[in-house]
Amino acid sequence: MNEMTPIRARKPDWLRVKAPTSVGFAETRKLMRRLNLNTVCEEAACPNIGECWTQKHATVMILGDTCTRACAFCNVKTGMPRPVDPLEPEHVAVAAGELGLEHIVITSVDRDDLPDGGAQQFVKVIEALRKNAPQTTIEILTPDFRNKADHAMEAIVEARPDVFNHNLETVPRLYPTIRPGARYYHSLRLLERVKQRDPSIFTKSGMMMGLGEGRLEVHQVMDDMRSAGIDFLTLGQYLQPTPRHAKVVDFVTPKQFASYGDIARAKGFLLVSSTPLTRSSYHAGEDFARLRAAREKQLAR
């Protein structure tokens, strides 16, 4: 090994997953290729891809495979994106139908090059799904639409996705190094405005653990999220995609994740997922059913 090659921390046993080899995995990949769709599962090197694709669950990443930002944690390539694909909304709807999805998660790269940050493409995808796959509930995981007009977010809310997710990713102190193109309070305010505009839409956000955040800082982010009316919190372990990305400062144990989960539930979130392998869209369909049930129980009191 070249002595200049950075050495990544070895994963503990609880983060080891099997390489995907199933027929379902191959079929899901073939479908995505045929429809010319990108997935965050592949682009972000998600450790759960084998499990999810075997069950024919995939998180579609719209607006291309090239991001205009360069976050220190993200494996999606950075550069000048290609023009928006006008056929993409229809292709997403076809994929949802062929996979038989009850719940779909749609995310995207950041598109700071577009006047609306790509908001209209989210709207078109939601409309195509409502028309062609009406049985499928829709969860979106959006960029922050920073420096875009308010109507970018408002247009998406008016299209009425079932879940509006935007990840805060980390604690405010780490934003300059981990998420330099974003602003913590802007992201928090985005989710607050979604809830104010349409309280019936579930709001969701998540954090990566192991980047050097302090326990009290995590508790403060939870409090900020609750003040913004966020319903669903996800906490998962950050994994370094390549030696060029931000290093893992520590591997948070399953016991510590369980403790964070207990604290978050005590703070009033409708639903919490806090495990090392938790990701924004991991088990999203099952979680949506639990989220809806939790709201119904709350309203029945």
From TrEMBL:
What is this enzyme's EC?
Answer: 2.8.1.8
Key words of the record: 4Fe-4S, Cytoplasm, Iron, Iron-sulfur, Metal-binding, S-adenosyl-L-methionine, Transferase
Concerning PROSITE patterns, the annotation shows: RADICAL_SAM
List, in alphabetical order, the GO biological process terms annotated in this UniProt record: protein lipoylation
Q: Where does [4Fe-4S] cluster 1 bind?
A: 41, 46, 52, 281
Q: Which reaction does it catalyse?
A: [[Fe-S] cluster scaffold protein carrying a second [4Fe-4S](2+) cluster] + N(6)-octanoyl-L-lysyl-[protein] + 2 oxidized [2Fe-2S]-[ferredoxin] + 2 S-adenosyl-L-methionine + 4 H(+) = [[Fe-S] cluster scaffold protein] + N(6)-[(R)-dihydrolipoyl]-L-lysyl-[protein] + 4 Fe(3+) + 2 hydrogen sulfide + 2 5'-deoxyadenosine + 2 L-methionine + 2 reduced [2Fe-2S]-[ferredoxin]
What's the main place this protein lives? cytoplasm
Q: In which pathway does it act?
A: Protein modification; protein lipoylation via endogenous pathway; protein N(6)-(lipoyl)lysine from octanoyl-[acyl-carrier-protein]: step 2/2
Q: Which SUPFAM superfamilies match?
A: Radical SAM enzymes
Q: Does the keyword Oxidoreductase apply?
A: no
Kindly state what the record says about how the cofactor is bound.
Binds 2 [4Fe-4S] clusters per subunit. One cluster is coordinated with 3 cysteines and an exchangeable S-adenosyl-L-methionine.
For the Radical SAM core domain, which residue ranges apply? 53-270
Per UniProt, what is one GO molecular function of this protein?
lipoate synthase activity
> Where is [4Fe-4S] cluster 2 bound in this sequence?
67, 71, 74
| Tagged with keyword Repeat | no
A family per Pfam:
LIAS_N
Question: Which cofactors does the annotated protein need, by name?
Answer: [4Fe-4S] cluster
Location in the cell reads: Cytoplasm
What InterPro entries does the record point to?
Aldolase_TIM, Elp3/MiaA/NifB-like_rSAM, LIAS_N, Lipoyl_synth, rSAM, rSAM_sf
Recorded GO cellular component terms are: cytoplasm
Return the Gene3D superfamilies for the record: Aldolase class I (3.20.20.70)
| Classification via HAMAP family | Lipoyl_synth
Q: Mind telling me which NCBIfam families this protein's record contains?
A: lipA, PRK05481.1, PRK12928.1
Report the family membership.
Answer: Belongs to the radical SAM superfamily. Lipoyl synthase family.
Protein's recorded name: Lipoyl synthase
The organism encoding this protein is Pacificimonas flava
Q: What is the lineage of its organism?
A: Bacteria, Pseudomonadati, Pseudomonadota, Alphaproteobacteria, Sphingomonadales
